[in-house]
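May I ask for an example protein's residues together with how it folds?

___
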Amino acid sequence: QVDASVGNGGATAPEFINVEQLTLENTSDKDVVIIDSARHINFICVEFKGPLSNPTSDSGSYTGVRFKSSTVTTERINFDFCKFTNTRYAMISDELVKNIVASNCYFSGLYKGIKLGQYSTSAANTPVNFRIVNSTFASVSYRAIDCYSGVTGVVSCGNHYEDVGTNFQGAGSPTATIINFVSDGNYSVFD
């Protein structure tokens, strides 16, 4: 079952899934993985890889991981020691998804790292409670974390940022802020 049919006919929405030591690659400019109406998923040592080489614009919205909640709220998705490379975005969501954690991850060759809530239809339908901890953002053209109006509960803690917001021109030529929080209730700590 896919999209709005997830869970129809008495079927159980996907949950309690572990994905380990795998490279997931899309050789066209499309989403690598779409997580829709799922709970309790762990990605450990997984690479999400696209075909782009240092994208410098947001023409197209394809991503390493897209979060959706077509029938039930996607929640409790963990990424540990994962790598996100050569896609326009590492993670993106415009829907209510919650409790997403990226820890010890590596983000490189992206236009933006994590983009949340740009096209959310209401404050009740925005992503909440993302945690990005002990991760490295290297070679990200625009922003590492970009949270639009209504997105709350995003915490960036202990992350390292190299060549982010420079349009791949190096550390001496910033063109954007590294982290953008539009709404209150989001934090950057020890970054």
